[in-house]
Design brief:
This protein is mostly helical. The protein has a domain at 18-91 and 129-170. 60% of the residues lie in helices and 0% in strands. The protein contains six helices and no strands. The protein has helices at 18-48, 56-69, 76-96, 115-125, 135-147, 155-170. The radius of gyration is 21 Å and the shape is globular. The protein starts with 17 loop residues before the first helix and ends in a 6-residue tail after the last helix. The relative contact order is 0.14. Mean pLDDT is 81; it is low at 102-109.
């Protein structure tokens, strides 16, 4: 019987070819756009919930919405390309300058909070679902409901689903 070499699709060898590095940068660029979109949605959802602090639940909801709507965005390719070019330029700059980084001291100002301000900040950190009827808030709430029964249909969806579920589990967010 012949020896069969089974492939998983992932290379077990470390591949430092320019094509491999470029592919990694492209994937990082896409994931950066994905994360930026999710964070922006979480920020809007927080504001429309009349809260000042973005919670881990808001981030999770933003990620879920983005999973369902990412490919619907018209500017993904442009934004990913811009980020890819930033990564490439940063990589080239890092190669050119091999200087040691110096630690910069930062002046930290301490703000004394009153008991009333502390109480308000604690209350503000509590998650509150948005009842806003704007397009983004409605879509986030729809995606949160859809998430409860949705099953991934391809490998990329499986990876993203698993990652978001891990975040939810880590922060005990499955109760929302």
């Amino acid at each position: 019987m012949e020896n069969l070499i089974l492939k998983t699709g992932f290379d077990n060898l470390i591949n430092n070819s320019p094509k491999s590095e470029e592919y990694e940068l492209q994937m990082m660029s896409l994931m950066t756009v994905f994360m930026e979109n999710a964070i922006k949605d979480a920020e809007i959802y927080t504001k429309h919930s009349n809260r000042k602090t973005i919670t881990s639940i808001d981030i999770s909801l933003g990620l879920k919405k983005e999973l369902f709507t990412f490919l619907d965005n018209d500017d993904i390719e442009e934004r990913a390309l811009a980020i890819f070019n930033e990564f490439k330029n940063e990589e080239e700059t890092d190669e050119e300058t091999d200087e040691e980084e110096t630690d910069e001291e930062t002046d930290e100002e301490t703000d004394e909070e009153t008991d009333e301000e502390k109480k308000n900040n604690i209350e503000d950190n509590e998650f509150k679902k948005s009842d806003c009827e704007c397009k983004i808030c409605k879509k986030i709430n729809e995606c949160a409901e859809l998430w409860k029964t949705w099953k991934p249909s391809n490998k990329i969806e499986e990876i993203l689903y698993s990652s978001i579920q891990n975040i939810d589990n880590k922060f005990n967010l499955n109760l929302v």
